[in-house]
Every structure is written in C-alpha cells, then in structure tokens.
Amino acid sequence: MAKTFKFSLVAITALSTLSGALSSVSAASLQEAIEDVQISNLTIMRYTSKTGLGDAASTASGSRFKLVSYLNLLTQSYGGFQGGLGFYYNQGSSMPFAKGSNSAHNDLLGNGGSHLGGEGVIANLNVFGISEAFLSAKTEDSKYTTKMGITYIRTPFTDPGADRGVGLVVQRKAGSTTLVGAMYDSWIALDVSFMYGLAKDKKANGDKSKLSTITDAQMSFKNNLYYVGLEKTAPEDGGFDLKLYVWGIKRIVDASAYLELGYNIGDFRLGTQVAYTYFGTLNGSPFASNYDSVPNMRGNALRNMYEPRSKAVDKSDRINPEKLLAGDAGLYNVQASYKASSFNFKTGFTGSFGQSYGALIDNQGQFNLGGVVWHNMLIYGGNGASMFGTGGVKNTNIMVGYAKFVVSPTKKINVGFDVAYVSGNNNLSGDDNNFTKKTQNNNNTQFVEFTPSLTYKLNERFTFTGWYGQTVGDMKLSIARAELKFVF
Questions:
Q1: 12 burial level (CB within 10 Å; 0-12, 13-18, 19+)
Q2: Percent of the chain with pLDDT over 70
C-alpha cells in the first residue's frame, strides 16, 4: 500500500511538473490571444404599460418588464482572419400578452426555476444563448470580407439586431459603394418565431392563457434565404444615395426586391422606398393543410401560422388565419426630411400595391412606416409590413400619412412628437376590445396616433428614452414606455 502510494505520489509530482510547464505556455498563449480582443455590450432595461378599452382583466391591458443584454467578442486579426462570438440574455417582454397573462409580476421569474419546465411561450422564452458565432476573413486592403457561421441578417427587409441565420456572407467595399451577397442554409426571424408560437394555440374558445410549447417557438426555416445588395452613400456635398437588394426564399418567395433612393441637398433629403415580393409557390394557398403539399415545408414555421380557427374567436393577438395567402405584396414610401443640429423634421406617405402589403420579413425593417404604436402594439410583429403578419393576407392594403418633429434644446435632450393617420383594408390585429365593432366586421381600421417622446443622454454610456402613444378612431389604446440603455 505504501509502495503504491509512493509510486502514485511520484507520478502525480511528475505530472504536476509537466502540467505546470504546459500551463505556463498555455497561459502565455491565452494572454496573447485575448490581449487585443474587442468587447462590446448593449444592455436595455425597459418597462411598458398598455391600456385598451374595457376592464383591464378583459383586454390586452397590462404592464411588462424587459431586460436584454448583448455581449460581443471579436478576436484580433491573425493574417486577416478573425473569430467572433456573441452572447445574449433576454428576459421579460416588450409588450403585454393577451388575456390572462399580462402582468409584469412574473417577469422577475424568481430564482430562474421557471425556465426548467412548464407549458407555453411565457414559461419558456429563450433567456440565454449564443447570438453569433463566426469566422471572418479580410484582404489586406480591406476591400473584401467573408464571414461564415451564425450571423445577424443585416438587410433593409429584416431586423438586423434580432434575425439570424447560419450561412455565408461576402462583402466588397470600394469607396462609397458596398456590394454584398449572402446565402443562409437555416434562418429565423424573431417576429416569425413569436407568431408561430402564438398561432399554434389550438384553443378555439378564446382562452389565450395556454400558448404553444418552446419547441414550436424555437423552430427555424430550413428553406434557403439568399440575397445580393448594393449600397452607395451620398457625397459629403450632397447628391444621390442608393440601396438595392434582390432576394428570395426557396419554395416561399420566388423573387423580391427592395429599392431606396434619396437625393440630398445640405440638411434636406427627399427619398423614396419600394419593396415588392412575389410568393409564387404559396400564391393563394389557404390554411396550414396546404403547406403539407409543398416540398420541404412540412414541419416548417410557416405552415401553422394561418391555421384555421373557430369563427367564434374575434380579433385577437394572432394573425387572422381563415384567409388566403397573397400571391404578391407591394409597398412604397415617399418622405421628405430636414435635419439640423437642434431641429429634425420628416413627413411622408406609405402605401401599397399588389394583393397585399406584407413585402418584408420583419414588420418594419428599414422601411418608413410612420408612427410608433400601431406597428408595436403586439408582443410580436404581427402588425406592419411583414409577409408573415396581417399584411400577408390576400386582398389587404394600407395607407399611412405621418410626420415627426424632434427639437433638441440641449445636446443631451431630444423632445419629439409623432403623428400618423392609418387607413385601408389593413387587417390590423389586436385584442378585440381595442377595436370598434365596425372594424371587427370589415377589417378596415382607420385611426390617428399621437406619440410624444423624450430622450435624455445621461452620458456617453447611458441614455434614457420615454414615450406615450395614444390612438383615436377604430383602434383605441395607449402605450407608455420607459427605457434605459447602456452601451460600451
């Protein structure tokens, strides 16, 4: 026993000596590797209160807390190669859910045990995960950049801070012009993830307390997404700026294009945007059952988004599913803006053409929709310009006239005011108590939105934003939000 112990002690001593030597080398290599790592962070703490018609217990009224934080790491360049890794923490919600699940009291979630099980989206939201994981290569002159892995989908028709995919992105810069191309083998949009989870609710009696499971809300598209884009900034002394993207989704979108063209004279800019999407394969498809006949669509996020439901259910915080998908969607905008050091102003008009107005993946992207409340009133992006939302239904259209004023009395304070008039056969969705009976019958929602806002920059790291939005007309609700943002 003693001999064995002695031998073991010698062996352990030898291994410890070797391990110590290796550790010294590893420590030096590790220190060298992380010495020039770039670290950035964005943290947002948000409180939102929403009030509709009727008693709070029977509407989508309520309040929610949200805490979201992004931590991004980027290594130093090794012969033009870099690695990137991003983490996110996401808790709570930016908007109350529908009936029976709208209280901010559950957003703290105790000691975190709530995330170990339970039923429904509320109990199983993605709290912590990987936002990006990629390798990139850049030429010595920095003209060409290639990025491969999990990345954000940064386009005018997606949400660049939330929509992600697994694929390859190639970019070339030459002066003020940027060319970019990408192909994603698998991808998901945050709005789609929420919409899919909510549409999977099988209860036809109006009880919205039980939503879909986490496996439903976490599904991603296996239909390839691809695009090519051209961007050109305006010269410093004025002139034209341009964004042009052509994109598609295998077996969902046959072809789509986004064009933004602006002319700049000093502090004044006149611009126009046009987006058009042709759905092809899914042209006029009704309900979920039709998606099963489309190759590679079975088990996909889209197929349950328009699932048939009982006619006894009125407007709710879901898409109205008992309608056909549009064959195409068109959206256009004309906007004039003036930006000075202490005063900003913009006014414009957004309209649609084709069978619907859901021409984007995100409900807004970089498109000028006008207003704040009407396309942010739901926990997901059901209202707005998303092809997966209310605007993706056949025979819908929208008209929005809007203006925005911003005054900066000091360098730290901005006071703003948004006003928007929304009309058309827009099929906007929300809790039934937020709409007049006339609107519930014909889906032609007409209303005016007024939203004053305040932004106060405490310092270079912290910024406070608050706004209060009120709608008057066929849609009647108010939303108040207070937000603190930290960046480094």
A1: exposed
A2: 68
In this model, does residue 277 exceed pLDDT 80?
A: yes
Give the tens place of pLDDT for each residue, 88-147: 888 777 777 654 445 555 565 544 444 434 444 444 455 778 889 999 999 988 889 999
Distances (CA, A) of 14 to 5, 22, 25, 27, 276: 14, 12, 17, 20, 70
The DSSP secondary structure of 94-114, one letter per residue, reads SS--STT---GGGSS-TTTGG
Q: What is the pLDDT of residue 29?
A: 63
Query: In angstroms, rounded to a whole number, what is the distance separating the alpha carbons of residues 483 and 455?
Result: 9
Cα separation of 430 and 321, whole Å? 13
- Identify the DSSP state of 8: H
Residue 104's beta-bridge partner residues? none
Q: How far is CA 37 from CA 31, 83, 460, in A?
A: 10, 10, 22
Radius of gyration of the chain (CA): 25
Digit-coded pLDDT (tens) for 399-449: 999 999 999 999 999 999 999 999 999 888 776 667 776 776 667 889 999
Contact 358, 350 (CB under 8 A): no
d(CA 251, CA 253): 6
Question: In this structure, what token pair is assigned to residue 68?
Answer: 């979201």
Q: Token pair for residue 31?
A: 């220190």
- pTM value is 0.81
Question: What is the CB neighbour count within 10 angstroms for residue 405?
Answer: 15
Residue 182 · residue 241 · CB < 8 Å: no
Instruction: Locate 58 and state its tokens.
Output: 């029977």
Instruction: Tell me the DSSP string of 235-279.
Output: PTT-EEEEEEEEEEETTTEEEEEEEEEEEEETTEEEEEEEEEEE-
Question: 235-258 pLDDT, tens per residue?
Answer: 988 999 999 999 998 877 889 999
